[in-house]
Design a protein that fits this description.
Elements lengths: L19 E2 L20 E13 L8 E9 L5 E5 H7 L2 H29 L1 H25 L5 H7 L6 E12 L5 E13 L11 H14 L10 H28 L2 H14 L5 E5 L7 E5 L5 E5 L22
Parallel strand pairs: 1-2
Antiparallel strand pairs: 2-3, 3-4, 5-6, 7-8, 8-9
């Protein structure tokens, strides 16, 4: 049975309510009236109320529904309408308070995302290190040992779905109305190798995922240099695509290394090379078996086949973390 990958999006519960509230009058310690001309030291949150709220700063204590909780230099807190702040503190002062609050909120959100993103990384790192990376290396060992036929032939006869078509070409000549003849080529399919795109794919995808995990966990790059939290999030957001790429590589290998498919590949070697190269699948106990490879010099190698039967499905991948700075 395949497993759900531990790449859930982070939970932001607690981040937004701390900075945007709906019932500002429920806050304890509010000062009803602030003396005229007094300027706060900062805004500590914003509010969007569904009822009228009394401003503590303006002479008329104008009712409003949107504003900020302001903190005075002596520690008092009071409610201030969004327009009142810009009028009584000055536009530039009020905007600086708003920018500082937004920056604090963004940093808190980033911290919450990073903390939530870190929760599942140990499990993902362990799964990559203990399961997927060894499988990737086993597949890569086989791919490096396989005899090949020309890349141009492979690319010419590979389908959009990644299968390689073993075909003969039949040439028919047709008479042209103006005289002369024209050749028409028709491919006659003799066989099909599923997952043949693996012959073009590079390994190393899960090695990169492993490195990304370690970079996010430690906060340091491969040279040991400390990186910013924003960079850690960038690497964390890259993990989902990295896992998808790695699983695509392993799933393609699973199709290619199936016993009946290896027989088709061996048939293609005889058809296109005819130099003694050979690939055979052999059953060995309860394991997936072994692959026996003979090259054109009749050098032989036997490699155990990896067990690729229990890979997660690509559509089971959880969505990537989505975080955008305002």
């Amino acid at each position: 049975m395949s497993q759900q990958l531990p790449i859930e999006p982070p939970r932001l519960q607690g981040a937004k309510p701390a900075f945007t509230i709906a019932d500002p009058e429920a806050q304890t310690g509010l000062t009803d009236v602030i003396e005229r001309g007094a300027i706060p030291s900062r805004y500590i949150n914003r509010y969007h109320a569904d009822h009228d709220v009394r401003c503590a700063f303006c002479d008329n204590h104008t009712p409003h529904r949107r504003g900020f909780t302001a903190e005075m230099k002596d520690g008092r807190i009071a409610l201030c309408g969004i327009d009142c702040g810009r009028k009584y503190f000055g536009m530039e002062v009020a905007k600086n308070f708003e920018r500082a609050l937004q920056k604090t909120e963004d940093e808190a959100k980033r911290d919450a995302i990073l903390a939530a993103a870190m929760e599942d990384l140990p499990a993902l790192h362990r799964q990559v290190r203990e399961q997927w990376l060894p499988l990737e290396r086993e597949v890569d060992e086989i791919m490096r040992a396989l005899p090949r036929f020309g890349d141009s032939l492979l690319r010419r006869q590979i389908t959009d779905g990644g299968d390689f078509v073993i075909a003969d070409v039949k040439v028919d000549w047709i008479e042209l109305p103006e005289g002369g003849r024209k050749p028409i080529e028709t491919q006659i399919e003799r066989g099909r190798i599923h997952g043949a795109r693996i012959l073009f794919m590079d390994a190393g995808r899960f090695q990169k995922v492993k490195w990304y995990c370690e970079t996010v966990v430690t906060g340091r790059d491969y040279l040991g240099r400390q990186i910013r939290d924003a960079q850690r999030l960038k690497y964390r957001m890259s993990l989902t695509q990295g896992v998808e790429d790695g699983l695509l590589y392993l799933d393609t290998a699973r199709k290619f290394l199936a016993p009946e498919n290896l027989r088709e590949f061996d048939k293609a070697l005889r058809h296109y090379r005819g130099d003694g190269s050979q690939v055979q699948w052999k059953k060995k106990g309860q394991t997936p078996g072994v692959i026996r490879i003979r090259d054109s010099d009749y050098e032989r190698v036997t490699i155990p086949l990896p067990d690729l039967a229990d890979l997660p499905k690509l559509d089971e991948l959880a969505p990537p973390i989505r975080y955008k700075e305002r």
